[in-house]
UniProtKB/TrEMBL annotation:
NCBIfam families with a match to the protein in the record: transpos_IS1380 (NF033539)
InterPro entries: Tnp_DDE_dom, Transpos_IS1380
Pfam families linked: DDE_Tnp_1_4
Protein name: Transposase DDE domain group 1
Highest taxon above the source species: Bacteria
Residues in Transposase DDE domain copies: 13-283
Renumbered residue ranges of the record's region Disordered: 275-296
Organism field: Vreelandella subglaciescola
Amino acid sequence: MGESLSPWTPSCNGSIRVELSGHRTTSDSGALLLREALDNSGMIDALDDHLVDHRDPDRVRHSLASQLRTLVLQRSMGWIDLSDTDTLRRDPLWQLACSDARGTTPLAQDRPSQATLSRLLTCLGRDDNIDTVHEGLLRLAVWRLTSLDGGERPEHLTLDIDGLPIDVHGHQGGSAFHGLYGARIYSPLVASLAETGDMVGGLLREGNAGPAENADTWIPHLVRRLNESTGAKVKVRIDAGFTDNDTLEALEDRDIEYLGRLRSHTGLQTLAAPHLKRPRGRPPSNLGNGAMTWRTKPVPGRRRGAWCWWYKSGPMICCCMPSFWSPTSASSTGRRKRSWRFIASAAAPKPTWAR
């Protein structure tokens, strides 16, 4: 037990030598590096200090901090199901990486079970803890933003809003079968920063919730919190499912700048039809674009701009925004350059009615 075996050299490359050992081994050594980063961030300590733990202290076997580490580290390493913790129950690395103890003491300790971690998720979702979790997400995002630019906080941020269906295994309360995904799901909203990809908020919704349900109240609340935490001017980028009138009016009433993709619109397609035809001569090599505006009803005086662009024979893409803003680019590369750039137009485009 524990003896070393003769090394083996693969025939494809003689400079490689593989040594086998009978010692207890692991394939997840990167978890120790993640533990180091997690400790340096201070996230676990902050959550441990502010979360409300309703368990009887005399019966606690696994601290809140060790369970939080287990959840974060296992998911980061690709072990996404709670049941995976039973698979890793005797893995020495996971015993060492997630424990509060030092030395070899964790090797003799049991790891939290699937049922224990399930109760932890219930604890995190309680009304007296959910705000703490959201604040933790926001602090991490701000910490990363400031570390990327020498401690300087950005002046502008772009907030991406998306729907994220989550499959459920069973008939949990609030879940429902969704025909589009062919599964029983929850239908939460998630918000992330376009500049870094960091998630800054989430809203759990029932599985049969409409795409924009609750978006008109949740998005402005999140923008306000993000603005208070960073001091940056926050713009919102939304998909076609969120460009309903209630959501857009909620953003406009609070002077929140937005860019939203539109669903297929007969009126806009008709107005853009002349521009979609190929001109005489050589095919155009550059991106073509057209601009149209329409006035929403029944609110008088409210106007939004519809900006459409297309490439050769590709489909037309339409987005909407307040009429005094226009996008300067339709695409970008690199994670830090994913945010839309906005400029104030010298003059609003000529109004065109679209019904």
